[in-house]
Structures are given as C-alpha cells and as structure tokens.
From TrEMBL:
Signal peptide interval: none
GO MF annotations, alphabetized: beta-glucuronidase activity
Sequence ranges assigned to domain Glycosyl hydrolases family 2 sugar binding in this UniProt record: 14-177
Keyword Lipoprotein among UniProt keywords: no
UniProt similarity note: Belongs to the glycosyl hydrolase 2 family.
Name of the molecule in the record: Beta-glucuronidase
C-alpha cells in the first residue's frame, strides 16, 4: 500500500485535530446517524485512555466513537477520493453520514477506504469512526474479556504494556486519478561501484510506465520504462547505518492522452544478508546496538508525536545506538521514514505478542491449556497473524532502514503445535519478501533443548533476564546461567545470535553500595555482566536492551508506575545505565567487540 502524499497528480488533506468523542455505553444506538450527543472531545492522533479524568473511559471495553465534519476540496471532481487511517487500535468501522463505508481489524497498520461513489467534490460530510480496543484469542495481539465481580466487562491481555486504544495515528483525505499507480516495489543491490535498483510497478492494464532515479542533488542518474525493470546507478552512494543516503524514484503512468499519475519514492541502495555467523549490511558485518522501544508517552499513550520522534532519535544518537526493534507492533510510518533519513537500523515486528499461555502460568511456564489449540491460538488467530504479516511487509518493504522481520515476540515455541503454526507464516513472509532475514524473540521458557522452530529462521534473538526474573540480585550465578544458555544455542543452531531483550527494572534516584535490585547501580552492573558474556562469543551479532524508556503497563503489584526497565525515564531523563551504555556503544561504532575498524 502506497502512503498518501502530495504529487503533481495527487493531493492530501490532513484530518488531525480535536474530534467529538463518546463511548457506546453513554450514546444512543447507531450514534453515527447524527451529531454525537456528547460533551467530550478527543485529540487525534492520541490514544483516548489517558486524555480524560474518567476511569470508565480509561478502561472501557466496547466501542468508542470519534466524529468530525469533513469537506472535500472542490477541485477533486473526476478524481478518486480516498480516506486513509494510519491506524485504528484495534478495530474500526467507518461511517460517512448514515452509511458504513469500511471496516478494518488490526491496530497498527493503515487502511484506505474509497469514497468516490459516496461523497462529492466541494461538499461536506459527517465522518464517524467507531474504534474498539477489545482483544480476544482470535486477534493479534490476543487477549480475553472477562466479567468482573461487579458485573462489568474487563479486558485481560497477555502482554506487558498498556492496551492503549483509539486513533493514535493520523487520518487523511486524499485524492488520486481514477486510473492510478497502485503499488511500487523496489529491491536494491550493488556490484563494485554500480548500484542496482530493480522495480515493479502495479498499474491497470494498458498504461505506459516510465521511471527515473535522481540522486540527492536532483540529478537524474538512471531511467527506465515498463511495469518492471532494472536501473543501473553508476558510482552509487550506498545507504549505510549511520550514513543514510537516499535517491528518489519517480514513477509516472501515461495513457494515450498523456501523464495521468505520478508517485515519488525514496530509495536507499543497500543489501542485507546472513552469512555464516555474520549479519551483513552491504557485505560488511554489522553489530546491533540499541533497544526494544515502545510508542509510549504521557497523555498521548501510543499517539504519534513528531517532537518525541525527533528527541528520541537524538537520544539514540547520544547513547551510541544504531538500531531498535519495533517491539511489539509496527510503529508509525513516520518513524520508519525518519530512520531511513538518519541511518538507524530497524528490526520490524508484527503485533504478535502474547501467543504464549505459559506466561499466564507465571515463571513456572506451565500453561493452563495449550497455546496452539482451539481455546487460544486457533485457525482464526492464524489467519489474523497472516493478515498482519501481509500488511506490515506491504507497508514497509521499500524502507532501507528495515533489515529484518520479526514474526512474533516470545511465542510458545517450546510447545507442541508451534511448528505447525509458524512454518506457514515463515513461508508466507519469505514469499512476500525474499530479501530480508527472519527472526522471532525467544521467550525464557523456550530453551535450546525444547524450542521447536528455530531452524526455520535466520537469526536467533533471545529475550533473557538472568539476574532479574531468575536469580535477582545474584549476578555471579546469573553470569554462569547466561553463558551456558548461549553456548547451548550455539551448539544447537549454526546461526548468528543476538540478545533482543535484557534488562532490570530501575527506580531513578535509588542508590546502594551493594548489589541491590531496583537501584541505578544494579542496572548498570546487570548490563555489564551481560556484556561480558556477549563478548565471549564471535557468533554474537547484537545487543538490544529492554527498554529504551520506561513505559505504561497494566496495573499490578509488580508494576508500580509501569515497567521501569528503561535506561531513560518515561520523561526521557537518563539513568546511570544510559551513560554506561554510551561509553560502550560509542566505542563499538557498529563493530563486534574485539574486532578492528
């Protein structure tokens, strides 16, 4: 799916702002048939949960309604008129005046609705978005709804971050020609000093396609013709981690009367490959330093915010991070585009977090019933997971910053049924994009002895918390356990291995001279212990700390004010560990520890 943008043949109107807002329990039936009868207004983009001082709204189970008036530009006569939601978490039904015009399930990927036959240029309409944050065993991510002791429905979910809901990303009205460029796919390579950009353009039959590639100065360096082809770029400047360089591919579609559509696409020429124990970018070994992150800020929840976007990337640069994982869902496309422009490497993850009944069993890892069963991850869950893969890869396939797909976070890969569940997903991901490696983050319960799917993937990504959830406060024992764990994985699978999560909750300002958990000193020593172990193994290709910043979670006795494993506070203030990471990572500069420049 092409992101809407202004071009010579397309126009774009942003619908962000303050919309009328209400929850279904306080509104009449079919509230979309009139102006919402509510005193409330909600900001878009933002999650609605933290906007209001009302516990019933914050924890609402069911549908909420956003509404505003929209006027179609009068110049859009004879154009295709489309409505774009960058995300609606987790499901949406969209109404124009009294008519439902579209639906979507999946809270972190965009969807378009064609309004050409419903609205008219120059006229206004009432736009209502019904959004549900409800999760079941057949959604991605999964959850369940229980009835509490007071008779009210309660959302239960199996991931450790707050289930923010609503219109957390932008909404757009956009135009395109009736016969338009529908999709563009690019695959890049290089040989010697020449770059290669293979392109495929999806257009209706009968249109003539022409493409040209311009460098950063606007000079055209290659041209082509046809729905598919290959462009040679002499003296190519490669896109590199920390040194981003983008060309611009202009795609034009013609009929017998002339130009009918035009679309511009940034292109970074680079290659990604797993070879032996190395993760290669442009043929050179790359060592990941960075974090798992979250889209999470005060008041906005998961609402996209460009100020936080800029500041977070400044902090990534300051600390020496070269990468992050979009844990545990696709982030706003603006985040990926910013990484494209600034040379930050991304592991792009689906919203498949919580596919593990063992987590419900606590640290025993004993599930109340099998994860891969009719009660939980069944055929409908699998179909939803496939949809997420298609939408994620369809959205992000052309971004040079995205170097690997993560199919799931901490699934029950140790349980029977895991292989039958994941093997078709791996096949689908490779069909959708044969150019990028695949991974998944391995939960603590899945060991090198019992994991059933690791051979399907290219990189082993471990989530391990020795010294925190296991042997807290005993870093000497934790070091021995971590060392043995990694050695076991290396013996089991001849693949690159990285740590996709390791961390310790830390209360900023809490100090001690002993190995006392929750102190800033303990977090620093905990990370140093992990690094000593990582540096022993040449097969290791990266370390991503959990987490970049503290974030909101469910209310719970073990989560006072959220998850505190951030090396930055939720306000983005550094803890002592951030300074220690800066000293280590800025010295590595993307290289494996112990290797030369």
């Amino acid at each position: 799916m092409l992101k809407p943008k202004n071009t010579s043949t397309r126009e774009l109107v942003n619908l962000d702002g303050v919309w009328r807002f209400g929850i279904d329990s306080r509104l009449p039936e079919q509230p979309w048939t009139a102006a919402l009868d509510t005193p409330l207004e909600a900001a878009v983009p933002a999650s609605y949960n933290d906007l209001f001082i009302d516990r019933e709204i914050r924890n609402h189970v069911g549908w909420v309604y956003y509404q505003r008036e929209v006027r179609v530009p009068r110049g859009w006569t004879d154009e295709r008129i489309l409505l774009r939601f960058d995300a609606a978490t987790h499901a949406a039904k969209i109404y124009v005046d009294d008519q439902i015009v579209g639906e979507h399930v999946g809270g972190y990927t965009p969807f378009d609705i064609d309004l050409t036959d419903v609205v008219a240029a120059g006229q206004a309409f009432r736009l209502t978005a019904a959004v549900s944050g409800d999760l079941t065993n057949e959604t991605i991510p999964p959850g369940k709804i229980e009835v509490g002791y007071d008779g009210r429905p309660k959302q239960v979910y199996f991931h450790d971050f707050y289930n923010y809901a609503g219109l957390a990303r932008s909404v757009w009205l956009h135009s395109a020609p009736k016969s338009r460029i529908e999709d563009v796919t690019v695959i890049t390579d290089f040989e010697g000093t020449n770059g290669v950009v293979d392109y495929t353009v999806q257009v209706p039959a009968g249109l003539d396609v022409r493409v040209r590639l311009a460098d950063a100065d606007g000079t055209v360096v290659a041209e082509g013709r046809g729905n598919a082809g290959s462009l040679t770029v002499p003296n190519v400047t490669l896109w590199k981690p920390g040194a981003a360089y983008l060309y611009e591919l202009t795609v034009e579609a013609f009929n017998e009367e002339g130009l009918i559509d035009c679309y511009d696409l940034p292109v970074g020429v680079r290659t990604v490959e797993v070879r032996g124990h190395d993760f290669l970018i442009n043929g050179k070994p790359f060592y990941f330093t960075g974090f798992g992150k979250h889209e999470d800020t005060y008041v906005r929840g998961k609402g996209h915010d460009n100020a936080y976007l800029v500041h977070d990337f400044q902090l990534l640069d300051w600390v020496g991070a070269n990468s992050f994982r979009t844990s545990h869902y696709p982030y706003a496309e603006e985040v990926i585009e910013f990484a494209d422009r600034h040379g930050i490497v991304i592991i792009d993850e689906t919203a498949a977090v919580g596919l593990n009944m063992g987590v419900v069993g606590g640290m025993t890892g004993t599930p109340p019933f099998p994860t891969f069963s009719e009660q939980y991850a069944n055929n409908n869950t699998h179909a939803a997971h496939q949809q997420h893969l298609r939408e994620l890869i369809g959205r992000d396939k052309n971004h040079p910053s995205v170097v690997m797909w993560s199919i799931a976070n901490e699934p029950a890969s140790n349980e029977d049924g895991a292989r039958e569940y994941f093997e078709p997903l791996v096949k689908l991901a490779r069909e959708l994009d044969p150019t990028r490696p695949l991974t998944y983050s391995v939960v603590m319960f899945a060991t090198y002895k019992n994991d059933q799917i690791v051979d399907l993937f290219d990189v082993i990504s471990l989530n391990r918390y020795y010294g925190w959830y296991i042997s807290p406060g005993d870093l000497a024992s934790a070091e021995l356990m971590l060392d043995g764990d990694i050695r076991g994985w290396i013996e089991r699978a001849d693949k690159p291995i990285m740590m996709s999560e390791y961390g310790a909750d830390t209360q900023p300002g809490l100090h001690a001279v002993w190995d006392t958990v929750w102190t800033e000193e303990y977090q620093t020593e905990y990370l140093a212990m992990n690094h000593r172990v990582f540096d022993r193994f040449p097969q290791f290709v990266g370390e991503q700390v959990w987490n970049f910043a503290d974030f909101a979670t469910t209310d719970g006795l073990h989560r006072v004010g959220g998850n505190k494993k951030g090396v930055f506070t939720r306000e983005r203030r550094p803890k002592a560990a951030a300074h220690a990471l800066r000293q280590r990572w800025r010295g590595l500069n993307g290289r494996k520890p112990g290797t030369a420049e």
